[in-house]
Amino acid sequence: MSDLIGQLIAKLVAALGEDTVLVGGDVTSRSAGWGLTEPNAAAAVVRPRTTDQVATTLRLCHEASQTVCVQGGMTGLVHGNVARAGEIALSLERMNKIEEIDELGRTMTVQAGVPLQTIQEKAYEVGLMFPLDLGARGSCQIGGNVATNAGGNRVIRYGMTRDLVLGLEAVLADGTVISSMFKMVKNNSGYDLKQLFIGSEGTLGIVTRVVLRLVRQPRSHNIALVSIASFDKVTGFLRAAQDRLGADLSAFEVMWDDFYWLVTSPPAKSLPPLPHGSPFYVLVEALGAHQEEDGERFERVLGACLEEELIEDAVLGRSRAERDKLWEIRDDVEQMGRMGPIFTYDIGLAIGDMEAYVAEVRGRIGQRWPDARIVVFGHLGDGNLHVVVGVGDGSREARRAVEAIVYGALESRGGTVSAEHGIGFEKRPYLKLTRSDAELALMRTLKQALDPRGILNPGRVLEPA
Amino acid sequence: MSDLIGQLIAKLVAALGEDTVLVGGDVTSRSAGWGLTEPNAAAAVVRPRTTDQVATTLRLCHEASQTVCVQGGMTGLVHGNVARAGEIALSLERMNKIEEIDELGRTMTVQAGVPLQTIQEKAYEVGLMFPLDLGARGSCQIGGNVATNAGGNRVIRYGMTRDLVLGLEAVLADGTVISSMFKMVKNNSGYDLKQLFIGSEGTLGIVTRVVLRLVRQPRSHNIALVSIASFDKVTGFLRAAQDRLGADLSAFEVMWDDFYWLVTSPPAKSLPPLPHGSPFYVLVEALGAHQEEDGERFERVLGACLEEELIEDAVLGRSRAERDKLWEIRDDVEQMGRMGPIFTYDIGLAIGDMEAYVAEVRGRIGQRWPDARIVVFGHLGDGNLHVVVGVGDGSREARRAVEAIVYGALESRGGTVSAEHGIGFEKRPYLKLTRSDAELALMRTLKQALDPRGILNPGRVLEPA
User: Fold this and answer.
1) Total CB pairs under 8 A between chain A and B
2) B286 interfaces chain A, CB cutoff of 8 Å
3) Residues of chain B whose pLDDT is less than 50?
4) Phi and psi dihedrals of A104, rounded to 5?
5) Where would I find the H helices in A332-395?
6) What pTM was computed for the model?
7) Taking the CB of residue A198, how many other CB atoms lie within 10 A of it?
8) Contact A442/B446 with Cβ under 8 angstroms?
9) What is the pLDDT of residues B141-196, one digit of tens each?
10) What is the value of ipTM here, to two decimals?
11) Looking at beta carbons, which residues of chain A come within 8 Å of B243?
12) Contacts of A302 (CB under 8 A, 6+ apart)
């Protein structure tokens, strides 16, 4: 550790107290990031309890031009939260208070370090729901969800995290506190500054507090797994579900046959509720306001789609246990491990381009690696597919070659290299495939304006200046 | 006109053609802005047909440090589009093409000058709906809707304009074209640049093209006017409507008794469908997926609310004509003219603070002007109220005094001086009441970074540098 960092750490300890600044073994024993086994490489981990302490930390780091890595629940998939040697990590873990629940206004005011699941549960206790939901719910923190604009399974109905944030507070690189803790859906009073901090992955400021939008708890919950004979019919079924289930439609998760096979064959958690052999399977879910009527309508809609031959077969989740079982199929992504070394992607493109896109990727990968396995699944209604590729070779070179194909086929289609996971370090080399030079230059202009010394999460999203 | 402007106009004519650059009487005869009778004061009006022409215009103006006023349908209520002497106006009126409708992906790609109503109608023709709706629909242009993040009547269900924009293209002050014409709901590939241009009222860039999000056309439409005995019961009824109508709830428009009286007493367009005398009236609307079932549910929910004494009385709109009649009551804002000279406000605050806020404003205004009339109505579910005040005196001094009360009572409540109309010139003096010094400084940082010469809509939203 350099003398300069040592002096800064001493200043941080003096300003914040010893228990707030971890060093040595207290740092190396912490998780370095999702799926990583190496020690945490940060020079120190600062764990502020208040916005003021975050501001003090950043002010001191800014004065010293010290780079800072922002850490939350450490569940990010693009390694934006992985500290590099010489960085000071700032963890929001002790800013974990729920400050207020406004039942009437349907808002919850929280500090950034509250785990997502805690928020979901607290909302539930007062008859409300916080609709953001993703696999990492138990560990991920709301500040990270906001910084990465997390998506998840119910975006089709409730939107991304961006749509669920009414107000927020963030600290800029120099320690300035920007507090825009509004509680209203409508607010056109000057620039909507919160948008800067949502989805910019901690590179423009550190989110410290958030006003979240809650919704009334749904009173009905209907779900089915259906099998479908062609991609055209998948989109026909989507259209029918949107028309006939209306705003209740809360999930429309597509699984290509090879994904379905993998998650319903031993040793997967589930047996196949519908036989193998169809090219597509869709998990369709509706959340409504009246259990009995909605259930009848849901069954009637599926019945009509069967008659119209949009779908081949359907199985309903009639109880909570049955519903959970159906979701378990979709969520059993661990089965991908059976493919050997894999590369996973989170791409976005227009629904109308998906079939040709998947065919092109399959074709080009199959040409180069005849034994390759490719499974595709995702949030069809949101234009978001997850593509998992195993070519029997986990090397960096193989990965680059696969990425050239997976991302290359997006370029001409106006797609995105990241629909929901973000850019971090992992996808930075590919950002230029789907964002123009002018867009990248404008991103750098913003970064320069808000963080002129480049201390906040440097190298994530954008190349360091 | 100065020589410098004359030279610049000559350059613009040379680059864009004579028919693209209006001067003299062709300028003065144009509308100066909503409700204004004076001539348009712009030195010239440039009417580009393409993004390239917008870019050329801005590049030349930037080189000359020439200020530019952006104009659309000229329906803005805060005079942000009113050209000042010496400004060159840039009107998007000839960029009025609908470029593409993607029925499956439910998107429409349009140029900025397309009127809102045209977009609504084109969507309708293909079985879809563009849900943004406001009184100025026939004249306002989508570029202006985006630049001001327009709201309207159905925000409670479909969100603000911001929520309906998937991608956009904008031209920066120096002529750089930023094209982020994505079509996906989910896209976390770097900073979400479109957010900069939505709601910043043309001060950070000029929106030239937009990818809009469409929704499936609802198949049911139910509406009722109800009378309610107390504000507590208004919020109880909102809660019940959210719970029992679920995601179908598309409007919840509250009218305080004095507003209702004004719009249902001669010479207003409407007779009172429910008798005068209740303290509150609410227009409640649901858009669903099944006409028969939804109608039954809607009536049953109202019936239950009557039994539970949440509402006193209700009248249903059973036909299209009846539904239109009910909306006509809410929309007959011209009746405000009967109050003599009036000042109108568009404020936002938490629902739980509304009753005390209105009481405070009434009390303080009544104390100073015992004969004052105050009517209140608005989009309760979105935290947005419109307050109209008549004190028998339309002078600037009276206005400032009323504003001090109306806006002053927001400050301690974390409210906003503009929920949906924006800031423009009109509300600039009050922006500081609900935005902190740090927030205003950050807004100026953004303005400086994107428009260093301050040529774009100067003086709107922020003080000129």
Assistant:
1) 292
2) no
3) none
4) -70, -50
5) 354-368
6) 0.96
7) 27
8) no
9) 999 999 999 998 899 999 999 999 999 999 999 999 999 999 999 999 999 999 99
10) 0.96
11) 216-217, 219, 289
12) A224, A226, A311, A314, A316
